[in-house]
Write a structure and sequence with these properties.
- This protein has about 200 residues and is an all-alpha fold.
- It folds into two domains: about 55 residues, Arc Repressor Mutant, subunit A; about 120 residues, Tetracycline Repressor, domain 2 (Orthogonal Bundle).
- The radius of gyration is 24 Å and the shape is elongated.
């Protein structure tokens, strides 16, 4: 009789090996800070990958390991400013909306308005930038305001049939319109916009 052979011992599961060196968080922060700083100083058209790398103190190949081009870097830098430091909702609709509008002003004061100009004039030629801004910054920013309004609607503070999407567009659009008017932002601007908006959203008495 043939002697039974022992079953082969299963080979231990191999641990996936990481390819290359782990990415440095400090390098990532330096890149986004450099991109935001240069964007505010030079505008989008004059911004280059070489300039971003030099400003961040890294090599251009290191930058390209993380981002495929200028549009990707700018979208990521804008998202970091817009959403990373966005005020958390406090449960007070007026205060929340004022805080969001003030934050929006601070973001554009940092990066300048050239990104908005590209959005308006160069969508056909800069589709990656526009898509990145919409996905990482514009839509999430709008959601913050809409969610604050939706919570207030649940609390009965605004009308049950209030058009929240249009209200968000009115609030954000007021910022762009005021900037284009060139009259400057005074201290009470955000409060006036929010108060006018809330008058149209409150339930009929």
């Amino acid at each position: 009789m043939e002697e039974a052979r022992p079953s082969p011992t299963p080979a231990p599961a191999s641990t996936p090996r990481r390819r290359g060196r782990p990415r440095s968080e400090a390098v990532g922060e330096a890149i986004l800070e450099a991109a935001a700083r240069l964007l505010g100083e030079r505008g989008y058209a004059a911004l280059t990958m070489e300039g971003i790398a030099a400003e961040a103190g890294i090599s251009k190949p290191t930058l390209y390991l993380r981002y495929g081009g200028k549009a990707e870097v700018v979208a990521a830098a804008f998202a970091r400013l817009r959403m990373g430091a966005a005020p958390a909702p406090a449960g007070d609709l007026r205060a929340d909306l004022v805080a969001q509008l003030r934050h929006l002003r601070r973001v554009y004061a940092t990066v300048g308005m050239s990104v908005l100009g590209v959005c308006l004039a160069e969508e056909e030629h800069e589709p990656d930038l526009i898509a990145g801004l919409r996905e990482g910054s514009l839509e999430p920013g709008r959601r913050l305001m809409r969610d604050a309004m939706a919570a207030a609607r649940e609390r009965g503070e605004i009308a049950a049939d209030a058009d929240l999407d249009t209200a968000v567009e009115m609030a954000v659009g007021a910022f762009y319109a005021h900037h284009l008017a060139g009259t400057g932002f005074d201290e009470g601007w955000a409060e006036r916009v929010v108060d006018a908006l809330l008058r149209g959203l409150r339930p009929a008495s």
